[in-house]
Write a structure and sequence with these properties.
Layout: H1 2-37, E1 56-58, E2 71-76, H2 82-89, E3 103-111, H3 117-131, E4 134-140, H4 146-160, E5 166-170, E6 174-176, H5 178-186, E7 198-199, E8 202-203, E9 231-232, E10 236-240, H6 243-251, H7 260-271, H8 293-296, E11 301-303, H9 310-320
Helix pairs in contact: 4-6, 6-7
The structure holds 2-acetamido-2-deoxy-beta-D-glucopyranose (2 copies).
Amino acid sequence: MKKSVNLNHKIILPLLCAVMSLSFCVSLTWRILGMLFNKPVPMENYTIAYPHNYTYVLNEPDKCRGSAPFLVLMIPVAPHDRPARDAIRETWGQENCVPGVAILRIFVLGLSWGHQASKIQAELGRESREHRDIIQKDFLDSYRNLTIKTMVMLDWLATYCPRASYTMKIDTDMFLNVDNLVNKLLDPSALHLKQDYITGPVIGYGIIRRDQESKWYMPFEVFGGVFYPPYISGIGYVFSVDLVPKILRMSKFIRPVFLEDVYIGMCLQELGVKLTYAADSRYFPRFSVSYNPCSFSQLISTTLAHPHQLPEVWHDFQRTKFAC
Ligand SMILES: *[C@@H]1O[C@H](CO)[C@@H](O)[C@H](O)[C@H]1NC(C)=O
Ligand SMILES: *[C@@H]1O[C@H](CO)[C@@H](O)[C@H](O)[C@H]1NC(C)=O
């Protein structure tokens, strides 16, 4: 017995040292290679201004007035993507999706650019008057500006809808099982609202991409190390609205990165808020699940392999889910 304990010490300690020095060497090598071969990146490219620096082009200040919705769906979308907005309006974005539960739908946009910009903007004005579900601020709508979009979304909630209970930030190429989200995860009949609560597809050890060709390239000067702090994939995360003012306050002290989900993770880590893993691992698959009414009846949200099929999938799901 004693012997085996000694043996463990003899093996584990040196092994631990070896692993630690190896990981130290790897990150040092990365740093040196980065300094030798990476072009320095101008800091401004990674500095994203606070949401107050932008002003509303379209807004819905009365959408929540005097009411405390149970759930607000916040959907970032590109200005030109009317087909995606219409598909969501007639599927999981219907505000009366769950009888007796107040749900709101808000699309979050920046400004469109290119030669079609003024035409798109005029159409957006009409669409906004028709549906009353669009907010837009005057930053350029681009992948690199998604963190601005998320901060605008939080700022809107804090300003115009602070009494909402929960919110979900969800991408347009997703399928959302609203009934499971409301009844299985959040539970409107619960005595107490969850506090400091955020869940979704948690990424515990997200590797930082250092190849400059990558869409997710992150220079060492902006974020060192090998892994990001734990965060929840931006495809769809659910959180309690009490977190909104806390994240906004903390964000003033944390230099933004353009990966909005990583940035929210950084703010939460600094706040000491732990990410919640969903009780059922099937709720938030990180990769797309091919459509099948029975597997979709178990989950809350998933990326659709073919987003244009959302209406078709949705209507089939409404018909067949009860057969599972
Ligand atoms: C954004 O607004 C803040 C406070 O109003 C100001 O200090 C800052 O310089 C602004 N940043 C930009 C890029 O305009
Ligand atoms: C982000 O938006 C700001 C404000 O409109 C703009 O100046 C900047 O070029 C945009 N950045 C990218 C990468 O699109």
